[in-house]
């Protein structure tokens, strides 16, 4: 069963409320509804993951009737939108993004964009994370996202949204005319070493660190998200909250079969 016509949409991101990707996503969302709300960080929160602010206050600036800038994480934004700002009716759909950069493979665990969608899944709200892959210091192909995001969203509105499900979408780093199609994918896994601390020294001779991002080649097995975008395809990956490694449960159960005898 798909979503209703004219769904109430909450738009979130991790690049900040003024980022070009969220401006584009709101424009796209309005193709599907006149009931669109934007709650986003007041500045970039990339890499925030599924974190929330529990040790300091979350400050909010309301820009107009349906736009809020939040000094907090993308998860904070989703929670505030759902519980504080849209109190008369919860959103029917959460759209997160459009992120400036990839959210592929293990990026999901770091991504604030994906995590805002994940919070929707936690609360039983259909949610889609959208990202435009880029190459740093090169033009960003926003027109690729502009063309394909409405197509993807329109089809996903017909999805049977089971509890705990969210969808991760990546648009390839190519001009719109070079996109070769849309592919349903699995989540890939790159070789280790994508993120490494790099030591620097400031003008007072005090060391500090940047986390350097570098994506080693590999892990692009046929059918996964890494492989799809190398083929210039839009990648659509259904994800779920339930992360149990079911195949390993019997092995662990066997290891602890005599646990009572060991502990007594």
TrEMBL record:
GO terms for molecular function: 3'-nucleotidase activity; 5'-nucleotidase activity; exopolyphosphatase activity; metal ion binding; nucleotide binding. A divalent metal cation binds at residues 14-15, 46, 99. Its cofactor is a divalent metal cation. Binds 1 divalent metal cation per subunit. Its main location: cytoplasm. Its EC number is 3.1.3.5. Keywords: Cytoplasm, Hydrolase, Metal-binding, Nucleotide-binding. It is found in: Cytoplasm. GO terms for cellular component: cytoplasm. Belongs to the SurE nucleotidase family. This is 5'-nucleotidase SurE. It comes from Sphingopyxis macrogoltabida (Sphingomonas macrogoltabidus).
């Amino acid at each position: 069963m798909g979503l209703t016509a004219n769904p109430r949409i909450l738009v979130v991101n991790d690049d900040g409320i003024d980022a070009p990707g969220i401006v584009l996503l709101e424009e796209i969302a309005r193709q599907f509804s006149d009931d669109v709300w934007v709650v986003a960080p007041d500045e970039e929160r990339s890499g925030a993951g599924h974190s929330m602010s529990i040790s300091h206050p979350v400050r909010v600036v309301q820009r107009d009737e349906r736009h809020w800038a939040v000094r907090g994480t993308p998860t904070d934004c989703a929670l505030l939108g759902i519980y504080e700002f849209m109190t008369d009716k919860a959103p029917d759909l959460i759209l997160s993004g459009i992120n400036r950069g990839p959210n592929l493979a293990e990026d999901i665990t770091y991504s604030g964009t994906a995590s805002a969608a994940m919070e929707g899944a936690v609360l039983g709200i259909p949610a889609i994370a959208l990202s435009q892959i880029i190459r740093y210091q090169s033009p960003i192909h926003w027109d690729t996202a502009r063309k394909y995001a409405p197509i993807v969203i329109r089809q996903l509105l017909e999805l049977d949204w089971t509890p705990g499900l969210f969808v991760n979408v990546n648009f390839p780093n190519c001009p719109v005319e070079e996109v070769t199609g849309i592919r349903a994918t699995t989540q890939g896994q790159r070789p280790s070493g994508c993120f490494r601390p790099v030591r620097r020294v400031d003008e007072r001779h005090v060391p500090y660190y940047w986390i350097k991002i570098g994506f080693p080649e590999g892990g692009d097995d046929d059918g996964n998200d890494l492989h799809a975008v190398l083929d210039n395809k839009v990648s659509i990956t259904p994800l779920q909250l339930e992360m149990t490694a079911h195949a390993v449960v019997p092995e662990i159960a066997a290891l602890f079969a005599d646990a009572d005898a060991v502990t007594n």
